[in-house]
Specification:
cell inner membrane, MetI-like fold, BP-dependent_transpt_permease, 65% helix
Length: 321
C-alpha cells in the first residue's frame, strides 16, 4: 500500500517546527529548578521531613507524654526505635513532635514576614514623602531593638500577661516582630525604581486605587525576591527557634521542639548520645534541605545563570503518512 504524502500537512509541520514557541515565565522557572538535582534533592528531603512530622507518630505506639518505666534511658531497640530519654519517654515520639513544631514555626514566620515586608516596603516606596519618612523611622527603630532581650522577657517571668499563650505560639509572635525589617528595606529600594516605570505612572494617572497598584504592579515584580526570602526566612526562623530554645528562653515545657531536645541532651552526650545526635541530625537535614532549595530557586530565577542549562522547548515531530 502506498503512503500518500500531503504537501499541505508538511507545510504546516514546518511552520510548527520553525515558529517561536512562547513559554510562560513560571514554567521556565519550574523547568530550571527541576533540572537542578541538588535543589530537587532538597525539596524531597524537606517534604519527607514534613510528612514525617505529621504521620511519624503512627510509627510508634508511644507518645511524647507516656513514660515507659521498664526502659528508662535505654538506647535504640525494637520496642523504641530511637531509644528513650532519661525519663523513659520514647525519643521517636518526641522527635516527631519537635520536628512538627520547628517546621510550623519556620513556615509561619517565613511566610508572614515576607507578606509584611512586601506590603510595608511597597507602601513606603509608593506614597513617599512624609509617609515614607515616618515609616522608615519606625523601621529603623525596630531594627535597633535587641531581639534576644525581648524574647527573654516575653517568654520568661517578665511576660506573665502572655503566659496564657502556648510557648511556641508566643515565640512565633516575637520572631515575627523582628524578622521582616531587613527585607522591607530591600523591597523599598526595589519598589522605588519600579515607581519610575511607565505602567506604574499610567496607573496612577488613570486614578487606580493606591493599594491596588501596590498589589498588582509592585509586589508581582519583586516576586523572585520574595520567594527567595521565604526560604531564607524559614531557615532563619528554625535556627532562631533552636538557638533560643537551646539557651532556655524559647519553647517551654510541656511543648517540645528540636531546640529543646538538643538543649536538654547537650550535657549528657556521652551518656545518652542518641538523645543528642538524632534531633541534631534532623535539624541539619531540615536547614540543609532549605538551603539547597534556596540555591536552586536563585539559579532558576536568574536568567543569566547557566549552572542548570537552558529551558528551550522541544517540539515533537509529527509524521503524516
Amino acid at each position: 500500500m502506498t503512503n500518500i504524502i500531503d504537501p499541505i500537512a508538511e507545510l504546516d509541520e514546518a511552520r510548527v517546527e520553525n515558529q517561536d514557541v512562547v513559554i510562560a515565565k513560571s514554567r521556565i522557572i519550574f523547568r530550571r529548578f527541576m533540572r537542578n538535582r541538588t535543589a530537587v534533592a532538597g525539596l524531597f528531603i524537606f517534604l519527607a521531613l514534613f510528612l514525617f512530622s505529621w504521620v511519624g507518630g503512627f510509627l510508634t505506639p508511644w507518645d511524647k507524654e507516656t513514660i515507659d518505666p521498664f526502659n528508662i534511658g535505654m538506647g535504640p531497640s525494637p520496642e523504641h526505635f530511637l531509644g528513650t530519654s532519661q525519663a523513659g519517654i520514647d525519643l521517636l515520639a518526641m522527635v516527631v513532635e519537635g520536628t512538627r513544631i520547628s517546621i510550623l514555626i519556620g513556615v509561619i514566620v517565613g511566610g508572614l514576614s515576607v507578606l509584611i515586608s512586601a506590603i510595608y516596603g511597597c507602601s513606603m516606596a509608593f506614597f513617599g514623602g512624609k509617609v515614607d519618612s515616618v515609616m522608615l523611622f519606625i523601621l529603623e527603630a525596630l531594627i535597633m531593638m535587641p531581639a534576644i532581650l525581648v524574647v527573654a522577657v516575653a517568654t520568661g517571668s517578665g511576660g506573665d500577661g502572655l503566659r496564657a499563650l502556648p510557648s511556641w505560639l508566643l515565640l512565633i509572635v516575637v520572631l515575627l516582630v523582628f524578622s521582616w525589617m531587613g527585607t522591607a528595606r530591600l523591597v523599598r529600594s526595589l519598589s522605588m525604581s519600579l515607581m519610575q516605570r511607565d505602567y506604574v505612572k499610567a496607573a496612577k494617572y488613570m486614578g487606580i486605587p493606591s493599594m491596588k497598584i501596590v498589589r498588582r504592579h509592585l509586589v508581582p515584580n519583586i516576586g523572585s525576591l520574595l520567594v527567595l526570602d521565604f526560604t531564607r526566612g524559614v531557615t532563619g526562623a528554625v535556627l532562631a527557634e533552636v538557638a533560643f530554645s537551646f539557651i532556655g528562653i524559647g519553647i517551654k515545657a510541656p511543648d517540645i521542639s528540636l531546640g529543646v531536645l538538643i538543649g536538654q541532651s547537650t550535657g549528657q552526650v556521652s551518656s545518652f548520645p542518641w538523645m543528642f545526635w538524632v534531633p541534631l541530625t534532623v535539624m541539619f537535614l531540615l536547614t540543609g534541605s532549605l538551603a539547597m532549595m534556596n540555591d536552586g530557586l536563585r539559579d532558576a530565577f536568574d536568567p543569566s545563570s547557566s549552572s542548570i542549562g537552558s529551558a528551550k522547548s522541544k517540539t515533537a515531530k509529527k509524521k503524516t503518512r
